[in-house]
Design a protein that fits this description.
Blueprint (H helix, E strand, L loop, with lengths): L1 H61 L6 H20 L4 H32 L1 H7 L2 H80 L13 H61 L2 H18 L5 H29 L8 E4 H11 L1 H7 L2 E4 L4 E4 L1 H17 L8 E9 L2 E8 L31 H11 L4 E3 L8 E7 L2 H16 L22 H9 L1 H4 L9 E3 L2 E5 L1
Parallel strand pairs: 2-4, 2-9
Antiparallel strand pairs: 1-3, 4-5, 5-7, 6-7, 8-9
Helix pairs in contact: 1-2, 1-3, 1-4, 1-5, 3-4, 3-5, 5-6, 7-8, 9-11, 11-12
Length: 570
């Protein structure tokens, strides 16, 4: 209500001030643009009439027609000035009346004195003209002067009235401004008092109560005072306090449960630590103590087999063969378990590993098996990644060995290893033309000791692909079987790429996008720089430095042969 009243008052004062200011401007305009010019023009009219009177007198004395020039110029100037004054006299009828009197008196003087004097001088000479300039003629021009004085007086009075109006409206405008300032001051004071009583004090009280709650007294009830809005605010804040108190109680309960769970986890961690120590001790025993009895059993069984082969009956030879095979399989199983347990536990630290060199080592390790199966091993240009070289060698050796082992009887095995850059990872594939894997068994083959075939059909412990998966995950990648392969098996895994390889591939992709579209393309076009045969600029620089070292006994020339195996370096 206070703001509404103040607004109405201020609007009224503003409207009045605008009206007064408009009138004040009109009065100032009358002074500057009407009465002021009228005074000047009236004075000029008087000068024009004096010029006429002087010219007539001079002509009567000299008789020279040139002396009449000021007379004619004065008349023309008088007419122009009167016309100009007429345009300014719309609001001044009294001044117009006085101007008409001046014109009438001037015209009477011209008809009674000026025209006769000029005519007499022209016709009868200067004596006749001077004879007409009498005291009566002077009195007649004095009447013109008197009318001019009345005109000046009337203009001056009009100007004074306008000046008085300007002073009056200016004073009124000042009064209105003072009243507006007074209204603002009074309303502001009342508003401050009202705010203090209706807003500040209730808010301060509410803030004090909230502060008590914030200091930890969550059971302190909060109530609002003052206007209804503050009462509702106090209720809402108190509802929030109750909810916070409830949540805090639940948090305390959850914290207690978490502390209990943490204590249980601590106990389990201690138990796991103890169990790991036991497992390490078991691994030590398995790698030392168990190996010796197994070697002894296998050795003596083999001695029995060699010495008494054919001397006993057929069943005895079969039993001895079973014993030798069981001891050997137990040795392989223990060795594979030890290798599986050591992955990620016995580490030499990550270094930059050239997978091309690793494939050379893999070719050497699998040479015997590939010669036996007449297998062909090829690989494209492979990247340099960060990892542990022995583990990566074991990883690729397991994949190549599996591809050679699970071959079709009537088809020579072909194994190809390739790589392509996908995002910030290298996707490495091991593709063969073997018996393949059914899609429903794609995940099962990576589980330890899981076999899809009888050990008589395909030898092994069933732990090779489990070792592959553990090595890949240890290096931050993932491994899977590509079930969309039309022939054989394709096992793919990812390894993190070096930052410089990712940047070089991005730069090459940008350059390819900017190149003309009619240029020929190379590679199989999966992605820019996808197939490892293309590589990246960073890889190419490293290859140049390693050319001499990679052509060793484990790396055959492109398209070359070693014995019965074919090795092609792409």
């Amino acid at each position: 209500m206070l703001l509404t009243v103040v607004a109405v008052l201020l609007i009224g004062l503003a409207g009045g001030a605008v009206a007064v200011a408009t009138k004040n401007r009109m009065h100032i305009d009358a002074i500057l643009n009407k009465t002021g010019p009228l005074r000047v023009q009236a004075q000029e009219v008087q000068n024009a009439l004096l010029d006429q009177e002087t010219a007539v007198r001079g002509y009567a004395v000299s008789g020279n027609p040139a002396d009449l020039t000021p007379y004619d110029a004065g008349r023309k100037r008088e007419q122009d000035l009167v016309a100009s004054m007429e345009r300014l006299l719309g609001d001044y009828p009294e001044i117009r009346q006085e101007l008409l009197k001046v014109e009438q008196r001037a015209e009477e003087w011209r008809q009674a004195v000026a025209v006769p004097v000029v005519t007499a001088t022209q016709q009868s000479g200067t004596a006749a003209g001077q004879a007409l300039i009498t005291d009566q003629a002077r009195e007649q021009f004095d009447a013109v002067r008197s009318a001019l004085d009345d005109l000046q007086l009337e203009i001056f009075e009009a100007r004074q009235r306008s000046a008085e109006d300007v002073r009056r409206t200016s004073n009124l405008l000042v009064v209105l401004l003072i009243v507006a300032v007074a209204v603002v001051i009074i309303a502001g004071s009342m508003l401050l008092v009202s705010l203090d009583k209706m807003v500040i004090r209730p808010l301060t009280g509410l803030a004090d109560q909230v502060r008590e709650v914030a200091e930890g007294d969550y059971q302190h009830g909060i109530s609002g005072t003052g206007p209804p809005e503050f009462l509702r605010l106090g209720e809402d804040v108190d509802a929030m306090r109750r909810k916070i108190a409830k949540d805090l109680a639940e948090v305390r309960e959850a914290r207690e449960r978490i502390e209990w769970v943490n204590s249980q986890l601590q106990k389990q961690a201690e138990e796991l630590t103890r169990s790991n120590r036991d497992l390490e001790q078991f691994a030590y025993v398995a790698s030392h103590d168990l190996q010796e009895p197994l070697r002894k059993v296998a050795s003596f069984c083999q001695l029995l087999q060699r010495r008494y082969a054919g001397q006993l009956d057929e069943r005895a030879d079969q039993y001895i063969a079973f014993a030798v095979d069981g001891a050997q399989r137990m040795q392989r199983l223990i060795n594979d378990l030890l290798a599986f347990s050591r992955i990620g536990r016995l580490t030499t630290g990550f270094t930059e590993v050239d997978l091309n060199k690793v494939m050379g080592d893999v070719a050497g390790q699998t040479e015997a098996a590939r010669q036996y199966a007449d297998a062909e091993l090829t690989w494209g240009e492979l990247p340099v990644i960060r990892g542990e070289e022995p583990l990566l060698t074991n990883l690729l050796a397991n994949l190549v060995s599996n591809s050679v082992k699970f071959r079709r009887p009537d088809v020579p095995p072909k194994v190809h290893v390739s790589a392509r850059l996908v995002g910030d990872e290298w996707e490495i594939s091991c593709q063969d033309n073997g018996i393949g894997i059914e899609p429903e068994f794609a995940d099962k083959i990576f589980v330890i000791f899981q076999r899809l075939h009888a050990k008589d059909a395909y030898p092994g412990t069933g732990i090779g692909l489990a070792i592959v998966k553990k090595i890949v995950e240890y290096h931050g990648g993932r491994v899977w079987v590509d079930t969309g392969t039309e022939e054989g098996t394709a096992i793919r895994f990812t390894l993190p790429a070096l930052p410089e390889d990712v940047e070089a591939a991005a730069a090459a992709s940008a350059a390819t996008d900017e190149a003309p579209t009619d240029e020929p393309t190379t590679g199989d076009g999966d992605e820019p720089g996808a197939e490892a045969g293309a590589g990246t600029p960073a890889q190419a620089d490293r290859r140049a430095d390693e050319t001499e070292t990679t052509d060793g006994p484990d790396r055959a020339p492109e398209g070359g042969r070693t014995g019965d195996m074919r090795e092609t370096v792409g």
